[in-house]
Design brief:
- With about 120 residues, the chain is mainly beta.
- It is about 15% helix and about 55% strand.
- It has one helix and six strands.
- The protein has a six-stranded antiparallel barrel with strand order 1-2-3-6-5-4.
- A hairpin with a 2-residue loop joins strand 4 and strand 5.
- The protein is globular.
Length: about 120
């Protein structure tokens, strides 16, 4: 069944209509600089729209804490899969990505649910 393509389009339209603006900061590590003693990083920002919600008390566990937030974004709005190395900027506040859950259909990502911590 070819249900994934229409679902991806609908997810993107819903995020555009009901979501708020967020910036996904993709951080790519480069080579190790022996002179500076550090790994170089390349940062690219991508402004998209996503739906922000609080974490429920039932979702709190060893990894997810009370006060964390959930961000739902459409997979088609991103160039790649977000990772825990990346950051999310919401109203100029930098959030760390704690966990990424992919909601998919027919092995194609529809949306990503990001657990965030400020």
């Amino acid at each position: 069944m070819v249900l994934a393509t229409p679902l991806r389009k609908v997810a993107s339209k819903l995020m555009a209509k009901f979501g708020g603006e967020v910036t996904i900061r993709t951080i790519t590590t480069g080579a190790y600089n022996t002179t500076a003693g550090a790994i170089t990083e390349t940062i690219s920002d991508n402004q998209i729209r996503g739906v922000l919600d609080a974490v429920n008390a039932r979702e709190v566990n060893e990894l997810v804490q009370a006060g964390d937030k959930k961000l739902l974004v459409a997979a088609t709005d991103l160039a790649g899969v977000p990772t825990t190395v990346d950051k999310v900027l919401i109203n100029s506040v930098v959030h760390q990505i704690i966990q990424v859950t992919t909601i998919e259909q027919d092995n194609q990502p529809i949306t990503y649910e990001l657990i965030l911590r400020a």
